[in-house]
Design brief:
79 residues, alpha+beta, four-stranded mixed β-sheet, 3 helices, 33% helix
Length: 79
């Protein structure tokens, strides 16, 4: 699953899902977010703007993370 943009990626960091990869545009300015990835030993791959936009689109917000999908569970109503 891909999460795009600073806020979505930041929320992903708060959860328990495994983050496989992070891609950021060269010059990405949110040092706090980058430091959190470094603290958790998650590699950030920097890309030039043209390559980043070609891969993720113009609305990706400068940062994208790839993480494991949600695991949905079925709930049974009590009888």
């Amino acid at each position: 699953m891909l999460k795009m943009g600073k806020n979505a990626v930041r929320e992903l960091l708060k959860g328990t899902r495994k983050i496989f990869a992070v891609y950021a545009v060269e010059g990405f300015q949110d040092k706090e977010l980058i430091n959190e990835f470094q603290r958790k030993r998650i590699k950030v791959t920097y890309m030039n703007k043209k390559s980043f936009s070609a891969k993720f689109g113009e609305k990706a917000g400068g940062i994208v993370s790839e993480a494991e999908d949600f695991n949905f569970r079925r709930f049974r109503r009590p009888s």
